């Protein structure tokens, strides 16, 4: 509780100290703090609850998220794929993003492409070690037919990307049908230096594509979830408008009623590879631990295998069993050795000091 109180105090203090706009779009604004505060309140609404979330914190999440959605003047990027182009860093949807600089000192760059790109053909920089990485089968199954977010998020066989390997007319992804991996990561893969304007834009283990921490689509979905609250479903106009704005951009039909599961699924595919889903699961675990555990235990984490007799791919199924212990990290032994009091019951912090 004290940790959450500290975070909330920080953000509430920051809001009046920040401005609605900055001449430098890379800088955070009051809308950044309000969006983050909405996300914190949504998480805290379920903390140590049993089955339901605290309505006062759901209302606060709704208030702050609604303020960002309705009053910030920010807009979703029309094309989802454009969110992950270096030229579109600090766009109208970005509320908070890590600002990277390529081809400079180590530690200033984004290294995702080096580790995620399926091959060096994509990067032209001597890296590209992601041939053995890809979305789980479970994640792939979450995408609806026709979802425009799928292709900018992960590549499947014969996907064509004109923005990659431009010198040769574009890039067509090819996957051996006998490979255990039948999809590779696309998000944050920006291509070679020649694909991005020339020397100094991409180097070995180095791009300048921003890493989103918070963007407007995230706040839209927070708003919808806060309105839904503890209800089984909602047809509230504001909740529908927020969720459907995200869906419509993805080329999907609007919904006339939404459930918590609709929002969970929408968040997962919208924010895939943006380091968000684990925190969604933790937020779920706070008030429905068994539901979150069952969800993870039922995920298909297997790979594909090639059946030479039928000449078809089959799933080599795999599941992992998690328990409540997996939702908590132990204190590092080195810290315990220095301070054994860490193992005793926590002492409430006096915020009056």
What does this structure look like?
With 353 residues, the chain is of the alpha+beta class. It contains 13 helices and 10 strands. It has a two-stranded antiparallel sheet with strand order 1-6. It has a two-stranded antiparallel ribbon with strand order 2-5. It has a two-stranded antiparallel sheet with strand order 3-4. The longest helix is centred in the N-terminal third of the chain and has 17 residues, at 55-71.
Protein topology:
Blueprint: H1 2-14, H2 30-44, H3 55-71, E1 94-98, H4 112-116, H5 120-123, H6 137-142, H7 150-153, E2 154-155, E3 160-161, E4 171-172, E5 184-185, E6 211-215, H8 216-228, E7 233-234, H9 237-249, E8 258-259, H10 260-270, H11 277-287, H12 289-297, E9 303-307, E10 312-316, H13 333-338
Antiparallel strand pairs: 1-6, 2-5, 3-4, 7-8, 9-10
């Amino acid at each position: 509780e004290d940790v959450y109180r500290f975070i909330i105090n920080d953000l509430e203090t920051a809001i009046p100290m920040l401005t609605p706009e900055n001449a430098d779009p890379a800088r955070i604004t009051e809308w950044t703090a309000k969006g983050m505060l909405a996300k914190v309140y949504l998480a805290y609404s379920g903390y140590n609850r049993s089955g339901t979330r605290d309505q006062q914190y759901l209302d606060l999440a709704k208030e702050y998220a609604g303020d960002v959605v309705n009053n910030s003047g920010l807009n979703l990027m029309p094309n989802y794929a454009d969110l992950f182009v270096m030229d579109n860093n600090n766009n109208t949807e970005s509320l908070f993003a890590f600002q990277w600089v390529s081809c400079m000192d180590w530690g200033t760059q984004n290294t995702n492409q080096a580790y995620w790109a399926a091959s060096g053909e994509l990067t032209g920089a001597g890296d590209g070690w992601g041939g053995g990485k890809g979305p789980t089968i479970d994640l792939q199954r979450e995408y609806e037919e026709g979802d425009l977010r799928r292709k900018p998020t992960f590549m499947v066989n014969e996907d064509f990307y004109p923005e990659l390997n431009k010198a040769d007319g574009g890039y067509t992804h090819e996957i051996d049908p006998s490979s255990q991996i039948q999809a590779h990561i696309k998000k944050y893969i920006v291509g070679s230096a020649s694909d991005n304007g020339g020397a100094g834009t991409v180097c070995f283990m180095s791009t300048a594509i921003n890493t989103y921490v918070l963007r407007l689509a995230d706040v839209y979905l927070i708003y919808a979830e806060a309105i839904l609250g503890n209800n089984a479903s909602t047809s509230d106009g504001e909740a529908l408008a927020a969720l459907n704005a995200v869906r419509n951009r993805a080329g999907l039909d609007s919904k006339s009623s939404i459930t918590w599961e609709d929002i969970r699924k929408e968040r997962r595919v919208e924010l895939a590879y943006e380091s968000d889903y684990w925190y969604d699961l933790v937020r779920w675990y706070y008030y429905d631990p068994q539901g979150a555990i069952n969800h993870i235990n039922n995920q298909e984490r297997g790979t594909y295998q090639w059946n030479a007799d039928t000449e078809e791919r089959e799933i080599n199924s795999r599941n992992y069993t998690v328990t409540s212990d997996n939702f908590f990290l132990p204190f590092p032994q080195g810290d315990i050795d220095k301070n054994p009091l860490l193992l005793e019951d926590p002492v409430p912090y006096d915020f009056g000091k």
